[in-house]
Design brief:
Elements: H1 2-15, H2 20-31, E1 36-39, H3 46-56, E2 61-65, H4 73-76, E3 77-82, E4 87-92, E5 99-103, H5 110-113, H6 117-122, E6 124-127, E7 130-133, E8 139-144, H7 157-160, E9 165-168, H8 174-182, H9 196-207, H10 213-225, H11 238-254, H12 262-278, H13 289-297
Parallel strand pairs: 1-8, 1-9, 2-5, 5-8
Antiparallel strand pairs: 3-4, 6-7
Helix pairs in contact: 1-2, 1-3, 2-11, 9-11, 10-11, 11-12, 12-13
Length: 302
Amino acid sequence: MHSKVEKILAQLNTVLLGKVTQTKLALVCLLADGHLLIEDLPGMGKTTLASTLAKTLGLNYQRVQFTSDMLPADIIGVSIFDPKRQMFSFHQGPVFNQVLLADEINRASPKTQSALLEAMEEKQVSVDGETYPLPSPFFVIATQNPLDQVGTFPLPESQLDRFMIRIKLGFPSREAEMQMLKHRQSNTSIEEVVTVDELKAMQLAVQEVEASDALLDYLIRLIAESRNGGLAVHPLSPRCSKTLLQASKAMAYINKRNYVIPEDVQAVFVAVTEHRLMGSQSEKIDNDAFSETILKRIDPLN
């Protein structure tokens, strides 16, 4: 399966030039069965990365452009009365795809944003007293514009916590932008690299990756540091501990190991924790100072 992982990363890096770290973190998120938040300015390739991930992993998906006038029913679906049958019938919304591309999620109102909470956490939705399971696997890949842009609503902390990883793409290097201008990236052929069954097998393999007691102690000390001295607006929760461990296992798996080392935890720590540490205020900060500070304070060998 590791050859498949290399092919996935190679295809992602062919489409999104010069963003090796970000594409690796995106794959970590999906192999760890999490949801991905991509935050940056418009035109930086957020939607391109999201759609390429879905196609590469062989998943059916639907892109939804979030707007201020969108309603929860536009995502979940709606019950419509059928006069012939004299009963209501539920019409599924775009959330009933294996991948929901929530484009510019913070342009929707908080009421509409909250419609995704149950779907992201429990992989199901409830409508009119009925519960409908979502397909497996199920991922939300959301893009988000900076909060200071016109027409944006900050994601509440409960919504941010549903995203395993948040990444920022940033501007491309001069060489990457030159290569992008020379080639028609929009015409790049995207192939299905793995089947759904192979993806599920990879996710099971990630769960089997071992973490020693010493590694778990290091991870717990990192989490505990966020709760000391008022460093963060929102200290990291026990649920974040589990999320961080799962992401670290996925990073170890991508690095062709069946056990986690401190470098795996360090590689995913900022992407997993920074948006949780600062909540909606993190959108106003251009660096990852809080998570980086915690990493510097805690010695994995101590």
